[in-house]
Write a structure and sequence with these properties.
The chain has about 260 residues and is α/β, with parallel strands linked by helices. It has a domain of about 170 residues. Helices cover about 35% and strands about 20% of the residues. The protein is built from ten helices and nine strands. The strands form three sheets. It has a five-stranded mixed beta sheet with strand order 3-2-1-4-5. Strands 6-7 form a two-stranded antiparallel ribbon. The chain has a two-stranded antiparallel ribbon with strand order 8-9. The longest helix has 18 residues. It starts with a strand and ends with a strand.
């Protein structure tokens, strides 16, 4: 079965495709439809991006984030707290937010709505805010194409590496002070190689050829590993069963 892992990168998405356990393609796309609508589209796609936006959130974000964060030890900061739908939409100038608002104004609008729709009155972290456009890209795609909902799953690379590492948090960061950390990347590449990923498909050289960060490429490979587990019926979801938002989109992280 053909499966794919997807991670966001500047200007689009990095994709790793596997078939029968072999990497058959690594690439970069601008829009997700370049993957979902190709003639040989993967049967299962796992993506490192939140899917499903509740109308209200509890402490520390959506249920999946609250459940997986404690598993990751020092890596738990990689799991952003995603606010309610209204706040995410406000951050990308949708549903009542005036066109032409600059980023600072959109961030203030998103924070105001996040506080109003959170049980703890929590605002929006800047890191989470910066991925709002990609969250809305996948949200719009799945709402317009319900046939894709059973094929596209939210995953998280650090949870994948946790599982590959014997359900132990990875001890080394991928980035230090915003720059790639080679020891942390090498640790993750070793885990991926043990799962059948060839070194040249996930190397720093391949990342440079694709014009993506080396961390983005290993993250896409990790989610491709999760996609294979989903396809084989081996994956777990957090929570289990997944919650659903008002549009019927699942709210769960799979590994």
């Amino acid at each position: 079965m053909r499966v794919a892992g997807v991670d966001g990168c500047p200007g689009g998405w990095v994709v790793v495709v596997r078939e029968e356990g072999r990497v058959v393609h690594t690439g970069r796309i601008t829009h997700l439809t370049a993957l979902t609508d190709r003639p040989d589209a993967p049967a299962v796609i796992a993506i490192d991006m939140p899917i499903g936006l509740p109308a209200r959130t509890g402490a520390k974000g959506r249920a999946p984030e609250r459940l997986v964060r404690p598993l990751l030890g020092m890596r738990q900061s990689s799991v952003f707290s995603i606010p309610a739908r209204a706040a995410v939409e406000a951050g990308v100038m949708q549903d009542g937010v005036a066109e032409g608002m600059d980023e600072a104004a959109r961030y203030r609008a998103a924070c105001a709505l996040a506080r109003a729709t959170s049980d703890t009155g929590k605002a929006v972290a800047k890191q989470g805010f910066h991925i709002f456009p990609k969250i809305m890209e996948i949200d719009a795609l799945l709402r317009a194409r319900p046939d894709l909902v059973p094929r596209v799953f939210e995953s998280h690379p650090e949870l994948c590496f946790w599982a590959m590492n014997g359900c132990r948090a990875v001890p080394l960061a991928k980035k230090v002070k915003g720059r790639p950390h080679e020891e942390g990347l090498a640790f993750r590449r070793k885990l991926l190689i043990e799962q059948g990923f060839p070194d040249d498909a996930i190397s720093a050289e391949r990342a440079r050829a694709l014009k993506v960060g080396p961390d983005d490429l290993v993250d896409a490979a990790a989610t491709a590993w999760a996609a294979g587990r989903i396809a084989r019926g081996e994956a777990e979801s957090y929570p289990s069963p997944p919650e659903r938002d008002a549009y019927g989109l699942p709210i769960a992280i799979w590994v």
